[in-house]
Design goal:
It is built from 19 helices and no strands. With 482 residues, it is an all-alpha fold. The longest helix is centred in the middle third of the chain and has 30 residues. It is found in: Cell membrane.
């Protein structure tokens, strides 16, 4: 795992090594029958890493070294959670593990059977990339581990989500470097926000979609700075493969498209318009066939609109029984800790749902509510810090920062519109706007950096760092013992 932190390696190589490492760990845990010991091993690894890191950092404090330890523990949490959480626990849209069903499991079984779904029922309306990769993993591991039980077979698909959840951490680190901000707080918040553990342990396309959206943010800024062939191809692949994962990834085409218009205007002034047009043509030639192939297929075969989303109907809680103000313009603070968890069949306020959802998703945990309550209180404080950071960035002139702020606005408008059209509890889930959280951590880090020379800077940074550290420790502990 040490090789994952080499500065000489590109993120692509790092992610490849990471993928292989996760695969090997999964095989060893299964062969040695260590599934029931995973949480104890996680705690041991984390304590050992913390002690080793503490010793090294006491000798000489190095922010880069600390960032590596944060990454490592973030990987341990995601891999560990995936290993001890079966695919039938805290799942979304898994369905019955049968080819005759219409959930995520059935989609994968169809691919394993050598065909795409022959309808767009249930989860079959989604693009196929996640399901193809999951099928490949199952195809490789099934004979190696001699799997016969259907749930054991489907559990292998968690490896795809886990790998992309881990890979997102590399993207966050690169985003911090691109923006030239202190990476410790943004990286810590993304590494230890529990919902990223949850996404990394599921059989669905959320973690993979979040990865591609984070990559789009990163390479949109890289492309803005330099319209090289490399940056253009990677950005196009991120859009194309992202839309082959989940069509909602296309929402980021709005802020990125506006960034491209800025480049066109600048190129006219600099007499480099032809080069910019060539770059945009290359981008379109790669991204559009990849991104639009499956939506066009479903349009032709099933008359499925490009913006189609499965409507759960009366099965889901109808939050439209509440007023617009109750759902979108209020924050019922009296319900913040009572109950501490979300309820998809009775909650109606999207801001409260998002706050709790970042920590617990839509699930309840069989532990004392004391720890979750403390975590929720601290997370609420952190959320206030992040919102203030976003507001402070509205007066920025840096194009990259304005791009990130615009991305937040576009994603949140799409999220609100989604909840208006589909007024259910489940549509308020954090997973639909996870990239917004990532952007807010970056702007939080930017805010602290920009105010580091002011009188209150040391107090502000220490307060922020202490709050984030406490939150991270509680998050690690809770998800090692549940």
């Amino acid at each position: 795992m040490v090789n994952l932190f080499s500065k000489k390696r590109t993120n692509l190589v790092n992610i490849s090594i990471l993928s292989l490492s996760i695969l090997v760990i999964y095989v060893l845990v299964y062969i040695l029958g260590l599934e029931d010991s995973v949480q104890g091993i996680m705690l041991l690894l984390i304590i050992s890493t913390a002690l080793m890191g503490g010793f090294n950092l006491c000798q000489k404090f190095d922010k880069e070294l600390l960032a590596k330890y944060i990454l490592l523990i973030g990987f341990v949490m995601r891999i560990g959670y995936m290993l001890y959480t079966p695919c039938t626990v805290r799942y979304h849209d898994l369905g019955i593990i049968s080819i005759d069903s219409d959930g995520n499991a059935a989609y994968i079984l169809n691919i394993l059977n050598g065909q795409l779904p022959t309808s767009n029922e249930g989860q079959f309306y989604h693009p196929p990339l996640y399901y193809i990769l999951s099928s490949i993993v199952i195809f490789v591991l099934k004979p190696i581990l001699r799997l016969t039980d259907e749930m054991d077979i489907m559990n292998c698909a968690r490896l795809v989500s886990c790998t992309f959840s881990c890979a997102t951490l590399f993207c966050v680190k690169s985003l911090c470097e691109e923006l030239k901000i202190n990476k410790l707080i943004p990286l810590s918040l993304v590494a230890f926000l529990p919902n990223f553990y949850l996404m990394g342990g599921r059989v669905n396309n959320d973690a993979m979609a979040v990865f591609f959206m984070t990559m789009i943010l990163l390479f949109s800024m890289k492309w803005y700075k330099k319209q090289s062939i490399r940056n253009t191809i990677i950005l196009a692949l991120c859009f194309g493969l992202g839309m082959m994962t989940k069509i909602s990834v296309v929402v980021l085409a709005i802020p990125t498209g506006l960034l491209m218009i800025v480049v066109i205007v600048q190129s006219i002034k600099n007499n480099t318009l032809l080069n910019s047009i060539k770059s945009l043509c290359l981008f379109a030639v790669i991204s559009m066939p990849l991104g639009l192939a499956y939506p066009i297929r479903n349009l032709v075969l099933f008359n499925q609109p490009f913006n189609y989303v499965l409507d759960v109907g009366e099965v889901g809680f109808k939050s439209h029984y509440y007023t617009f103000a109750q759902r979108f313009l209020s924050f019922p603070i009296t319900k913040m800790f009572n109950p501490v968890y979300n309820d998809a069949f009775s909650d109606y306020n999207i801001w409260m749902y998002l706050l709790k959802g970042g920590l617990f998703g839509e699930f309840r945990f069989n532990i004392s509510t004391t720890l979750p309550t403390i975590m929720l209180f601290i997370y609420a404080l952190i959320s206030i810090f992040m919102i203030l950071s976003v507001v402070s960035c509205l007066k920025e002139k840096d194009t990259n920062i304005l791009y990130l702020v615009l991305s937040i606005m576009v994603l949140m408008i799409a999220y609100v519109a989604f909840n208006i059209k589909y007024p259910y509890g489940c549509t308020m889930d954090f997973r639909y706007v996870a990239p917004v959280f990532i952007i807010k951590t970056l702007l939080f880090g930017r805010f602290l950096d920009r105010n580091k020379d002011k009188k209150y800077s040391k107090i502000l940074y220490r307060l922020s760092a202490g709050t984030v550290l406490t939150f991270s420790l509680l998050s690690v502990y809770m998800y090692c013992v549940i």
